[in-house]
Amino acid sequence: MPESGDEPGFGALGLPEAIVAELGRRGVTTPFPIQAATIPDALSGKDVLGRGRTGSGKTLSFGLPLLVGLSADGRTTTAKRPRGLILTPTRELAMQVADALDPYARILGLEMKVVCGGTSMQRQIEALKQGVDVLVATPGRLRDLIDRNLCGLDEVSIAVLDEADQMADMGFLPEVTAILDLVPAGGQRMLFSATLEREIDTLVKRYLDKPVTHEVDPSAGAVTTMSHHVLVVKPNTKAPVTAAIAGRKGRTIVFVRTQMGADRVADQLRQAGVRADALHGGMTQQARTGVLEDFKEGKVDALVATDVAARGIHVDGIDLVMNVDPARDGKDYLHRAGRTARAGRSGTVVTLALPHQRKTVFGMLERVDVDVSRHLVNGTFDEELVRITGARSLTDMEADTVAREAEATQREAEELSARAESLAAKAARLSGEAARLRDRAEKERSGEIAVEAPRRQYRDRPPRGDRERKPYRGQGTGRREERDRDRPRRDDRGGGRREFRGHGRFDDRPRRGGDTRGDRAGWRENRGGGGDRRGHDRGGRHFDRSAPRSFDRGDRSFDRGDRWRDRRNED
């Protein structure tokens, strides 16, 4: 961001000192025109209508006043009821908005959550249950959560609609209007867009109350640091020219019209030696995020994208945008061109046009007032092509590929060399230890030194029989010793085993009815009745369990008591 001593800083706009200090730590000291114009009005609670091209700093324009307003109202966020809402058209833009505002939300003690498709809904539900102050959402996923009664908007006091024109182009206006109808009236509304057309005017009249309008930035095509070129190519040279431009040094975004076209062009570029990857709406959110990260980290030089997936892209250092397929209209062209020349930097936009497309392309650019230069390209070695785009031949790209492989191989060789040195040092140490042990063994055999006894883990431990018994728990209190002293031993209880349950130290124990267990028959007789359950007549046979347990089975007689005693004696 450019700095100027004549321009006021963020502190003059009314932002808290903590926010201004965090902006300074991140190198953001001088506000962009859209920020300087809209932040004071937004902080005062007015409805704001702002127009600025992509990359002009609109995120901080609405994000910082929203965070400051929520932190100052003194309200507490309840479960499933956010207090601030930011609607964005794409997942990438929602994540970028959240990433840009999250440091300042943390300073103010606010929780922020992204709600969009392609990500885990369960995690979003859990976050809403715990309480989210600011919700950054795409219309489709948010409407789904609302229909399931998992999110309510009846406590939203500040609502922001970002990239409203893109939502209209993508057909999101029905979802947007249905969501905004659920937001209570009387709160603050802010709408930001790159263009203000008929669909946007409808939203403004329906939801904004006396908005303050700021149009401070020119369109993307009028940026003075951006140059526009139309390259007229023949059908048989379009693919080689595309590869030559994409193989240039630097980051390049290549725009195509369809998802299949993005995959096809990316494959062609990789076959030509260009580090390229595709990005479109048909990919999972995890895959799209991975591709963007590779592009930001420099692992991918050329990103082949469609209009839907590319509008939310914000990557620093993109100095060339190439339209392999011309944009459908001037609005799409401006959105594509806005990926370069961001934050005051320079950039180049080139459009490849076949001979029968020249008239359509030139007419479209004239309608959006873009000053464009025209070039007829005869081949990949055309001087104009190299001068404008920095295109390189396939041989140059192949040389770079081989050079990268050589660097990777060299790094691998260095890693292997370092490991080999470490292993060699370890081998030397082990060899020295082995020589020392051999020398000692030789001296032991010759009697020069005494043979050491085997090492014991417990060298001073006494023999097992001489060890002092470890005191058990409670010993030393006196209570357990006194109890054990009066406690009869096993030999005092009438023998190791009791012969009958009625003998031993239980002889004088009282039983029911005043009887003892030794006189079981008398106990049964006193119960009354014609015999008890244990001794009664069953068909002429009288069973009395108190009688000796003997039975006559033919010529064999069994005495259970004797057999039990014999077995006891054998034991």
From TrEMBL:
Tagged with keyword Hydrolase: yes
Chain intervals with Basic and acidic residues compositional bias: 435-471, 478-571
Pfam families assigned to the protein according to its UniProt record, in alphabetical order: DEAD, Helicase_C
Record-level GO cellular component terms: cytosol
Species in which this protein is naturally found: Stackebrandtia endophytica
Annotated Helicase ATP-binding domain residues: 39-214
Family: Belongs to the DEAD box helicase family.
Any one Gene Ontology molecular-function term assigned to this protein's record: ATP binding
Superkingdom of source: Bacteria
Stretches assigned to the Helicase C-terminal domain: 240-389
Start and end residues of each DEAD-box RNA helicase Q domain: 8-36
Name of the protein: Superfamily II DNA/RNA helicase
Swiss-Prot/TrEMBL keywords: ATP-binding, Helicase, Hydrolase, Nucleotide-binding
Chain span(s) of sequence motif Q motif: 8-36
Family annotation (CDD domains): DEADc, SF2_C_DEAD
InterPro entries xref list: DEAD/DEAH_box_helicase_dom (IPR011545), DEAD/DEAH_RhlB (IPR044742), DEAD_box_RNA_helicase (IPR050079), Helicase_ATP-bd (IPR014001), Helicase_C-like (IPR001650), P-loop_NTPase (IPR027417), RNA_helicase_DEAD_Q_motif (IPR014014)
Stretches for region Disordered: 429-571
Keyword Nucleotide-binding: yes
